Amino acid sequence: MKIIVCIKQVPDTKGGVKFNPDGTLDRGAMLTIMNPDDKAGLEAALRIKDATGAEVTVITMGLPKAADVLQEAIAMGADKGVLVTDRVLGGADTWATSTTLAGALRKLDYDLIITGRQAIDGDTAQVGPQIAEHLGLPVISYAQEIKVDGDSVVVKRVYDDGYHMVKAKMPCLITALSELNEPRYMTPGGIFDAVNAEITTFGRADLVDVDDSDLGLKGSPTKIARASDKVRKGAGEKIVAESPEDGVNYIVGKLLDKHVI
Amino acid sequence: MNKMGAMNAEEYAKYKGVYVFAQQVDNVISGISFELIGEGKRLAEQLGVDVTAVLIGSDVKGLADELAEYGADKVIVVDDPELKNYRTEPYAHALASVINEYKPEIVLVGATAIGRDLGPTVSARVKTGLTADCTLLEIADFPINPIPGQEQKHNQLLMTRPAFGGNTIATIACPDNRPQMATVRPGVMQKLEKKPGAKAEVIEFNPGFTPDNKYVEILEISKAVSDIKDIMDAKILVSGGRGVGSAENFKILEDLAEALGGQVSCSRAVVDSGWMPRDLQVGQTGKTVRPNVYFAIGISGAIQHVAGMEESDIIVAINKDEDAPIFDVADYGVVGDLNKIVPQLTEAIKAQMASK
Q1: What angle do CA B137, B142, B144 make, to 5 degrees?
Q2: Which of A53-57, B32-36, B148-152 bottoms out in mean pLDDT, i.e. has the lowest?
Q3: What is the CA radius of gyration of chain A?
Q4: Has the ipTM of the complex gone over 0.90?
Q5: All domains in chain A, ordered by first residue
């Protein structure tokens, strides 16, 4: 069985958010990590590998330095890495990203594709389902459990008010929630493997059945009209309560002023 | 090959009207559907067109009147036994077929666990752009300011959305393709006042459903057993974080919520610790809330949490850490011990209420 996991290198927002003096986000100062939902998807694939001996390939699209995230995945236990990188792919929205990844996936063999539900930098949750649509595959989004059952997968698909257990025949695409599992750490042997592992690089010419008009900035139907780092709501008042009564009287006073009570 | 290409002018001009996906689960219309009709109507009036609700399900025709009462001018009903429970494929086929048949210029879908699966699939199928999780929609020119050598298109949908856990905002347009599609964050747009007895033109449409490999099989359906009201509807939320210390200690927050006629909610850390169920979680991976008053108690204020509550009218924070980032968004902050302050606050509020 062959599994491909789509992963993305993203800036780390957890605990490491850095701001410029003017209150905007300092992206350059932030570390990068493997996107958490993708890492859970990778862990799910590695568990299938542990149980069945499946082959796990990781693929990412980005700048050449995104190869780091493939090496991390190999150090965790993935077998191969594919980096999709080309100048013409820059500035892609979710349509152009999904057409690119679909073009790369057509060149590879798979039974199962796993993506993260969404990336923490864009938060769109669109690329997974859009890849499935381009490839004509069934998609199961928001997976909290994945089991392989013969030539099918059985997935716990989470909704706002509960879940469905759904079964789909492979090949299919699943988008993983970070709640799916607790990803493993890299192993010393894995890190050794990662250093020696061959990472295949795909450029524009390697993408199968994709038109130039569907790639990069030019192939992106959505255009940015305006972008800004958010002006955060300013801090209001703050008191240090010398005693609990201080704090209580302060809050009750404000609630009375605002006619809440 | 799923090729998009630019849409020619003749085809482009055929796309008219604002359509919203009227999400229903178990034949109960989801709250987001009314919010989308309200917002859709506002946009439609600026464009001088109608707002149409697209109702998809099995035995759902009877729900059309309710959509009319909340402002839908037309309701397109796609009713088929295959559509009994949400599955990506038959629903995507239904909505994509409606779009291809009726050619709306704008399609809005709720950014729910259903809509964020349906929206991307449909947008890829009808070959147009999609903007995720929008919090503001406007009709305006694109580019916003004229650029020499580039046509400035009028009456475009500008879609504003937070990204990066709410730290950046971007406004997106889809100027060259139709329809313009957006998923819209629940709890942000305003529904219209219900007009009892209002009627809409109801159109029945069935594109035909032939199960194939994309029709997944539902083996089991489990609903979260909960008698808790949705925190998105609460006027007052008393929200606790890791600093509350234990599941048992949420009792003091529940007492405060009860005294104020509010509800308890929580941060992700609390859900991860198993102290509270997920449907009470506020934040980027939980729910977005905008109550009149939001109490952040023992919540440090990670950006992922703030993204889900910063639109609250009044934010009151209680935290022992003077440098907690929550104080950067709080209107009223108290540095102190929540275990002492919260129970006394509850008693003081009860005393105030009783004296009136």
Answers
A1: 85
A2: B148-152
A3: 22
A4: no
A5: 2-214 (3.40.50.620)
